[in-house]
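Section: Multi-chain targets

For targets with more than one molecule, the full set of components is provided together so that the structure can be written out for the assembly as a whole rather than chain by chain. Components appear in the order listed by the source. The example entry contains two components.
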Amino acid sequence: MFINGDKNNNNPKSIRLIDLYDLTRKDDLEYIFRGDFSSKIVSGILDLAKTTLKESSDTYRIKSKIYYIMGESLQNIARHHCETFYQSPDKYSLFAIHKKNFKYYITSGNIVEIKDIDGIKYKIEKINSLGHDDLREYSRTTRSTGALSEKGGAGLGLIEIAKRSGNKLEYDFKEINDSFSYFYLNTEIPVLNKPEAEPKTDYKYSIENIKELHEILVKDNVILFFKGAFNQNSLLNLLSIVESQLKESTITIKIYNIMVELLQNISKHADNFSVEIDWKPGIFMITETKDKFMLISGNYVKNAKTDALKRNIEYVNDLSFSQLVIEYNRILQDFDLKNNNAGLGLIDLKRKSKQNLDYSFHEIDKDLSFFTLQVSISKINKLSTLIIDATEETPRIHFDPDNNLFEITNKSLPEDADEFYRPIIVWLESYKLKPNKNTNFTFKLDYYNTSSSRYITRIIKILDDMARKHEVKIFWYYREIDEDMQSMGEEYFEMTDLEFELVET
Amino acid sequence: MNAQIIEPTIQTPYICFDPHNNKFEISGKSLPEDADEFYKPLIKWLENYKKNPNKETNFNIKLDYYNTSSARYINTIIKVLANLSLTHKVKIFWYYREIDEDMQLMGEGYSESTGVDFELVEI
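Its structure, encoded as tokens over all components, is:
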């Protein structure tokens, strides 16, 4: 339901975040987390909840109750945590908290073994059959008889959740395969004293909703979904969750940096849908597939600002990577251009992700649009092979690190050498960061014009830099009859300290 | 001149500007929402230090993360040091984690453009 096919969507490839927003707006959903629950993540999620709850107008008593039940639910998930379950993302656990019509709902979803289902059902039914006072008594006896044997502890957690919420526990199972099933647990916590006769249907609707949402999250590979107040505190909490979820690597450092820019962008520049709230509402999510991560933010902007914002993004998307670096430095130097802060953020997003930025605007009413910004980070950090076939005026390029083959052959007479060589320089600059132990680089050019020669010098300069820490050897081929090419080679040979071999053909 | 030492927080870096012990370091994370507030006094301190600096200044930049609003100030700090290097000996050490290619690239950019003695250190 989120992919493709809506005429309002500027970018057909992007996930329809507005749909997800609509879906969750029905429920005033606060946030959802999907992933592998370690204890570090649990504390990160609780901190985030604390930050989010701070913004709400509920009493301290309600807030601490919510906080307590969240803690129990999360521990319940962590307790069922078993390494073998979690090898694939489709078995990730789910945790969600949302608020609707003066009620909080706290929902967990995790994998359990089918053979345990009857035991869990029995425990919950037993708890649900007890009235308020009986439940207190049951809690006391369970505690004192030390029924903490193996998964007995989970029973105590459930009792506490039921006791504190003052409501029955709602649960459901969804079979995954012959051995495993999802176990959903939902708790409802009223904010106000409500009438005893509460319509059961409303309640049911909510757990079904979470199941539907869960399916969508699995389908779109969403590992983190947050909707709520965007400020520096929620940013720091989200960062700590992501930090504990993802093992530190080149990619996760990028994710971290990109999150900072995306989220600070919301907290600085987003608009609000109502003058009554003074926080910045928004959405942030991370999806993970086999070959990439996607970081997506969504927030409100005034329609009056959308054109300028679009222009800004298009401007950054049109810049080549070397232009990006120049532009980035220009803005850095130009300290007075305060308004360009957003521009600097956008440039940084493209620099670090090495991809163009995807975006969409969804007009909500005459004043406001919902703006989404999407940044992809490829998991394949390894440099791919660069092959460009020869044309009448440009050489054949074959850079293949895996096979340790680096060749520039034929002739180079392009009218616009910048256009042809820039991507080649960018590729080599990246290769320079993690080069092979030995690099043998071959120039086998019949002709080249002066504008190409600047780039050939540049390439040799990069190789020269690389040779400080790695072994690099240049092979310079020239035809026996071509004196000029021979003397060029000799000049380069003298210019650098590189190992340089002149080869007559 | 008094040393300027600021303990790190979850969003601001450790600062140690200590002329007596000739130790100058910025390390950790720099993600403040309002970088002005944090960095303006530091720039002022450095401008003062420039009036009466040590013979030799070794300046260590060892950041794990910094946001774009901090980037402006890192840039300013390097500019102040470049200026100081016209009259005194200055060396900047730019540390980066091996896996952090963006930090490496930033350092390489600076080492080419500033004209200060600039050393990249992989950790």
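Chain B touches chain A at residues 10-11, 31-33, 65, 67-69, 71-72, 75-76, 97, 99-105, 109, 113 (CB under 8 Å).
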